[in-house]
Amino acid sequence: MLIVMDSDAPAEQIRGVVEKIESMGLRAHPIPGAQRTAIGITGNSGPLDPAEFETLPGVRAAIPVTRAYKLVGREARPEGSVIRVGEVRIGGPEFPIIAGPCAVESEAMMLRTAVALRSAGADLLRGGAYKPRTSPYAFQGLGEEGLRILVRARRESGLPVVTEALDVESFGRVEEVADMVQIGARNMQNFALLRRAGRSARPVLLKRGMSATLEELLMAAEYVVAEGNQQVVLCERGVRTFSDHSRNTMDLNVVPAVQSLSHLPIVVDPSHGTGRRDRVAPLARAALAVGASGVMVEVHPDPERALSDGPQSLRLDQFEALMRELRAIGPPLGRHINPGSDH
Ligand code: PEP
Ligand code: MN
Hints:
Blueprint: E1 2-5, H1 11-23, E2 27-31, E3 38-42, H2 51-54, E4 59-63, E5 83-85, E6 88-90, E7 97-100, H3 107-120, E8 124-126, H4 144-157, E9 161-164, H5 168-177, E10 180-183, H6 191-198, E11 204-207, H7 214-226, E12 232-236, H8 254-261, E13 266-268, H9 270-274, H10 277-290, E14 295-298, H11 316-329
Parallel strand pairs: 7-8, 7-14, 8-9, 9-10, 10-11, 11-12, 12-13
Antiparallel strand pairs: 1-3, 1-4, 2-3, 5-6
The protein binds phosphoenolpyruvate and manganese (II) ion.
């Protein structure tokens, strides 16, 4: 059930509805919106009677929610969510660019890359300190040293930092440092981790599992929001198909699908989506054209020597070229692209 309040309902009327819900042994999730507040109800085992709520002061409507996800559904916030990461807004008319190497490899590399990305116009800096690797013998990330380097890279570049939390155990260390915590594709259904992210004060970048349906992705986001953290950004990073010409298949079709079903913003990661450097710019341009809320791209100063995902990492000059292209395409589509400081 979703309770939609009148647009001018004062805080005490919202509190009254919350108290009524809690008195029934259920959980209330207020979802403030630009026009009005909605209140999601969870914890009920069967359908609720709308009449129980419709007569409460300030209630405009009580809408039964038939879909499995209640809090991330579009009805809860029809105008869409805008998630803030520092000064950066994801879900508005801006088209934020998240850029950086796959992994934090060394302090010198990270600082140099961060400063260059900043002047080229990146909005957020990415880089994994903890890396989910298919092989246990592959580079696993610098761990806590990687987190310390990210702090320095933020200080040098001024860019807020997005980095991955691999497990519940290290989540606290990651959230202390990160401006946004990434949950990777392999962990999209790690429910303990999703719950932990739901209790964090940090915004969450939730990547789609490599064979996850849209419903599974939205249910994963519901785990986070149900714990109280409404700051979730979804990320399409390609799914596994029979295609043999790229690492994954970029499902750009999912962007308008998410936008019709959910209020959460969705960004696109053409680096993992294609696995090939030569495909990243075309698919990043396509992500802008299809209406995504932003892109995440891997950039490395020397991709041939990268410790992970070199083949899909742009060189710095290629990233600058991509930024110029996005700046040309963005404004006619009503999207603002960071001008960078080189321009
Ligand atoms: C990454 O962002 O480097 C990463 C590991 O992504 P994914 O979880 O989408 O594979
Ligand atoms: Mn990567």
